[in-house]
Design brief:
By secondary structure, this protein is mainly α. α3 crosses α4. The longest helix has 21 residues.
């Protein structure tokens, strides 16, 4: 069951229509996804005040986690 978390996360993102949203935001800032994720984490970790900032921080943390998983294969 714990091995299915990624599939559940993907299904949730698809149902919300948010697949690729963070990548689009990174491209709009003319940064790679990992550069933008690091920038967001540095800026908002511990002090994300608005719901939009919290959502962006969650997306950044998810992007960093996916990079770690991809790097371990």
């Amino acid at each position: 069951m714990a091995k299915q978390w990624l599939q559940k996360a993907r299904a949730s993102m698809e149902s919300k229509g948010t697949v690729g949203e963070f990548t689009r935001k990174a491209k709009a800032k003319v940064m790679s996804v990992q550069e933008y994720a690091s920038d967001v984490v540095d800026k908002y970790k511990g002090n994300a005040a608005t719901p939009a900032q919290k959502k962006l921080l969650k997306q950044a943390m998810f992007a960093k986690t996916m990079k770690k998983i991809a790097g371990n294969k």
